[in-house]
User: Fold Transcription antitermination protein NusB from Phycicoccus duodecadis.
Amino acid sequence: MAARTKARKRALDLMFEAEQRGIDPADLLRERLARPVTEHALAELTADLVTGVAEHRAQLDELISTYSQGWSLQRMPAVDRAILRLGAFEVLYSSDVPEPVAISEWVGLATELSTDDSPRFVNGLLARLVEVKPTLA
Assistant:
């Protein structure tokens, strides 16, 4: 697994854990940076993704809800919510990775970790956000 893919996976793990524990992902990130639970330090990309989602969560959730066509955030599997929040942040706010590459990475994680229908759903929603990105201010 490539380093950036591992960093995304760790961001996903943190987002999922924060939701399951009912705590803010930024607080969990700070906790993990202060007291790591693995021998490997968190990658900068991991921290950037978690921090970015925490900072833009309201807008990300609104966009995901708007373009998910009939699926409320609460109805989605928790792992899909985390993937979509992270993927939406990356395609909307990150300029260091081409959007198709970012979408492919998040679809890959959905394939590995979620339901059979999730990869197609994640792909469609993130691609739609890329389409409407120029109209978002």
